[in-house]
Amino acid sequence: MFVRAVLAYVALPGVIAFAIPGIGVSRLPNALSPSPLGIALFAVGTVLHLWCVREFYLRGKGTLAPWAPPVHLVTSGLYRYARNPMYVAVLLVLAGWALAYSSRALAVYAGVVGIAFHLRVVLAEEPTLERTFGEQWQTYSRAVPRWLFSLPSRWRSGEHDA
Questions:
Q1: What are the backbone dihedrals phi and psi of residue 140, each rounded to the nearest 5 degrees, phi first?
Q2: How many C-beta atoms surround the C-beta of residue 23 within 10 A?
Q3: Would you state the pLDDT for residue 35?
Q4: Is the predicted pLDDT of residue 30 greater than 60, yes or no?
Q5: With contact defined as beta carbons under 8 Å apart, do 70 and 61 qualify?
Q6: According to DSSP H, which parts of the chain are helical?
Q7: Under 8 Å CB-to-CB from 113, ≥6 apart: which residues?
Q8: 3-state SS class at 115
Q9: Which residues contact 23 (CB under 8 A, 6 or more apart)?
Q10: What are the distances in angstroms from CA 109 to CA 25, 52, 89, 90, 129?
Q11: In Å, what is the CA distance from 149 to each residue of 19, 53, 88, 157?
Q12: CA-wise closest residue to 55 among 81, 87, 77
């Protein structure tokens, strides 16, 4: 399973978060002078992402790949605070790239990837998790926001003042 986990990491976030932006950066005139703030954001995103992958491997007994998903619902680690911290971490990595090299193209790429992540979560992952884990998923999804924030319950229910 370890080899599958490594291959999944290389194939998925490896390409999206590291290879594609790295190729883009290599063509920039400021490729050798990244900003420290961007590098810090990149590093934080990378560490958080690796933490999430570790949770999938150790707690979920699976990988981040759709072809070898966790067999247990992962609700530990960063998954206590957001249902999709792995995607948030990848977006931090992408924001780090864009900020480090002052690249509008990488910022747009991060935005497109973020939209794609959201659509994937809502249209594919959440329905699959509900079918797979049933009541456990429903309880978890009611308690933990999809991303790192959640609208107050009065806003979600439409009870806010107009």
A1: -60, -45
A2: 9
A3: 94
A4: yes
A5: yes
A6: 2-11, 13, 20-26, 36-58, 85-100, 104-120, 126-143, 153-156
A7: 16, 90, 91, 94
A8: helix
A9: none
A10: 12, 22, 15, 12, 27
A11: 29, 21, 11, 16
A12: 77
Amino acid at 29: P
**How far apart (Å, rounded) are the C-alpha atoms in residues 148 and 47?**
17
pLDDT tens sequence across 41-73: 999 999 999 999 999 999 999 888 888 889 999
Q: Using an 8 Å Cβ cutoff, are 133 and 73 in contact? A: yes
What is the C-alpha R_g of the chain? Answer: 17
- 118 near 91, Cβ under 8 Å? no
User: How many residues are there in the chain?
Assistant: 162
pLDDT in tens, 83-135: 999 999 999 999 999 999 999 999 999 999 999 999 999 999 999 999 999 99
At 126, list the tokens. Answer: 């959440």
CA dihedral 151, 157, 159, 162 (to 10 degrees): 60
